[in-house]
Design goal:
Elements (H helix, E strand, L loop, with lengths): L3 H9 L12 E2 L7 E2 L4 E4 H6 L5 H5 L5 E5 L7 E5 L7 E5 L2 E2 L21 E6 L3 H4 L6 E6 L6 E9 L3 E12 L2 E12 L14 E14 L2 E16 L14 E16 L5 E18 L2 E22 L2 E18 L9 E17 L3 E12 L5 E12 L2 E12 L3 H5 L6 E2 L7 E11 L3 E11 L2 E7 L4 E6 L4 E14 L2 E14 L2 E2 L6 E10 L4 E10 L2 E5 L6 E5 L2 E11 L4 E8 L18 E8 L2
Parallel strand pairs: 6-9, 23-27
Antiparallel strand pairs: 1-2, 3-8, 4-5, 6-7, 8-9, 10-11, 10-37, 11-12, 12-13, 13-14, 14-15, 15-16, 16-17, 17-18, 18-19, 19-20, 20-21, 21-22, 22-24, 24-25, 25-28, 26-27, 28-29, 29-30, 29-31, 31-32, 32-35, 33-34, 35-36, 36-37
């Protein structure tokens, strides 16, 4: 790292100038609730403005955030932050870690419905020092805590035989809250293959409950979420290995839960005990016959205590125990037997210190995780911010770690895969420097990934496949710009990301070098409102496995335009119409998977 002295100098630079007082930034990414720099935030107003209840519509093009979706809504959807891998991003819902142990320890955004979500917070950069091994590249935190009394019914329909309905109810008082949402989405879909005309349908039913109650100095809370989804999709047969019309289907069940007890009887210390559970079950069918299934489970117990040490000095101490379970079922083939059942237990301890001065913010955090199946992991992070002009300059440096996944440890067919007990966690070192004001945030970063795990390496000595840590470094560097303002009756938000992600000098796949978005929303009159925007995704590479070895193909850049109108018919009724991919752009996020064309929806909202 020849650039370390220069970057460390940049980290210290903001400390030499000061201006106005520094406003505390409230975040979920820190257990102490504050940060050196503002995260990217989507509010319920942003989501409602364009009726973007589907995560891919709402998140595409945000700073540092790249999406790869396999065709239609419901197709596997990966998210990458700052050019890292999809399983380097930790997704958390109301304190519940959602990453699926049966899916390479990543979260599939395909089934994430944002109905009832009050805030989505994206914290780019390593968060392993606070949140553990899945947060190597960053954190996506989804908050459903209701802010006000709500009773609302929505119903809509549109092209591609699409129907969407939801109901929301919430009561918020001084001593707690209760909120429940239920949504149902179904579509006839479109054809994701490059040829043929078979349409692939999708349906999703989501129910979510968030409740909390104060009893004396104690606060008790609970969250429960159930997702039932069904997807039709196409097989990817030899020799092209791209979708071709066929009768394939998958059922996905998700169950998430949390119970929590917090003590708030002291200003000096506030302990919180939390138990969460996440369960992801997937079943695949071919021509109506069940062929395979996976089950991933995660149970986490966390004791976290915040201390107010003195004026402007704060400390968090956290201990945690996690159990991961993985089960896979399928028919044995000449290539091996996929049936297996695995388990992993991990214990972690973390500490985070923050100084919140009138003009200076500083933080230092560290975490140690002990595992029963491979090497232990240690992560640290340091950050500083200083008032400068109308905003703040900020800088940080830290490490992120990622454990070997179950498939990397045991393979898809354990009887023909040589498990490698010597695997080490992947580790990333990242530097960031930037400036944030009320309207905009600009950040530059550089990261290096070491010990990257290749999960499918042929061992010539033993005549089979195994997993190994690679003796090479992947580099990621980039610039991120976010802008948000209100111009009269119009809200404006925009973002741009430049990314250079390479391994041994070769650009990595599914990482667009340029991407961005712009969104406008506001009122045309007292009863008429609008939204208009576009997401721009630059060209990127993907692997073509029709040849051996695989060759790289270019996925062309594309622009997706959305537009909509809303009409308040009365104090209780509102009608709307929304178009996605307005100009019917034909594009691919993944080689061979044709994405849906234009979609038009119309609906009505009733608030009694």
């Amino acid at each position: 790292m020849r650039n370390i002295p220069i970057l460390l100098g940049l980290v210290a630079l903001p400390c030499f100038a000061a201006a106005a007082e520094l406003e505390t930034i409230v975040v979920k990414a820190s257990r102490l609730g504050a940060a050196d720099r503002p995260p990217t935030v989507l509010t319920d107003d942003d989501i409602d403005a364009r009726h973007a209840q589907h995560a891919a519509d709402a998140l595409r093009g945000l700073p540092g955030f790249a999406l790869s979706r396999a065709g239609n809504r419901g197709g596997a959807t990966q998210a990458r932050l700052r050019g890292a891998e999809a399983n380097h991003v930790l997704t958390v819902l109301d304190g519940i870690e959602l990453n699926n142990p049966a899916n390479g320890s990543e979260f599939d955004f395909a089934h994430l419905d944002l109905t009832g979500v009050s805030r989505v917070e994206i914290a780019n950069g390593p968060r392993s020092a606070v949140w553990g091994v899945d947060a190597l590249a960053g954190l996506v935190y989804i908050d459903t805590t209701p802010a006000a009394d709500t009773l609302r019914l929505d119903a809509g329909g549109g092209t591609q035989a699409t129907r969407d309905a939801s109901a929301r109810f919430a009561r918020v008082g001084e001593d707690g809250h209760f909120g429940i949402t239920a949504s149902r989405f179904e579509t006839g879909g479109t054809n994701v293959a490059r040829s043929g005309d078979e349409e692939d349908a999708y349906r999703n039913t989501t129910v979510h409950v968030n409740a909390a109650r104060d009893l004396g100095p104690m606060t008790f809370g609970a969250v429960w979420r159930a997702v039932d989804a069904a997807l039709e999709y196409d097989p990817t047969p030899w020799p092209a290995f791209v979708p071709a019309d066929g009768d394939r289907a998958a059922d996905s069940l998700r169950r998430y839960g949390k119970v929590e007890a917090a003590y708030a009887g002291s200003e000096r210390w506030r302990p919180t005990l939390t138990v969460t559970t996440a369960r992801a079950a997937d079943v695949q069918f071919a021509d109506g016959v069940r062929t395979a299934s996976t089950l991933g489970e995660r149970v986490t117990a966390t004791l976290s205590t915040n201390f107010a040490l003195a004026d402007a000095h704060f400390l968090n101490a956290t201990v945690e125990r996690e159990t991961h379970r993985f089960r896979q079922r399928g028919a044995p083939t000449p290539f091996g037997d996929p049936n297996q059942r695995q388990r992993l237990t991990a214990r972690g301890a973390a500490a985070e210190y923050q100084y919140r001065g009138s003009r200076t913010f500083g933080s230092l955090s560290a975490r140690f995780d002990r595992h029963d199946a491979f090497d232990d992991a240690f992560a640290w992070h340091a950050a500083v911010a200083r008032a400068l002009g109308p905003g703040r300059a900020f800088a940080s440096v830290g490490t992120g770690v990622k454990n070997p996944t179950f498939s990397e440890r045991y393979g898809y067919t354990p009887d023909t895969f040589f498990g490698n007990p010597e695997l080490e966690p992947e580790e990333s070192l990242e530097f960031e420097i930037g400036y944030a004001a009320r309207r905009f945030t600009l950040a530059a970063f550089r990261g290096e990934l070491e010990n990257e795990i290749a999960g499918f390496v042929f061992d010539f000595a033993r005549g089979g496949f195994t997993a190994r840590n690679l003796d090479r470094t992947s580099t990621r560097r980039g610039l991120e710009l976010g802008y948000r303002d209100t111009l009269g009756p119009v809200r404006v938000s925009a973002s741009y990301t430049w990314l250079d992600a390479a391994e041994e000098g070769r650009r990595e796949i599914r990482r667009p070098r340029h991407q961005g978005r712009v969104d406008l929303a506001g009122a045309l009159s007292r009863s008429l409102d609008f939204n208009l925007g576009a997401a721009v995704v630059g060209d990127q590479f993907d692997n073509d496995f029709a040849t051996f070895p695989a060759v790289r193909r270019t996925l062309d850049r594309y622009i997706l335009v959305h537009a909509g109108l809303g009409w308040r018919m009365s104090s209780r009724l509102r009608a709307w119409i929304q178009a996605e991919n307005l100009f019917d752009t034909d594009y691919e996020d993944i080689l061979g998977y044709r994405s849906p064309g234009a979609r038009v929806m119309a609906g009505i909202r009733f608030e009694p």
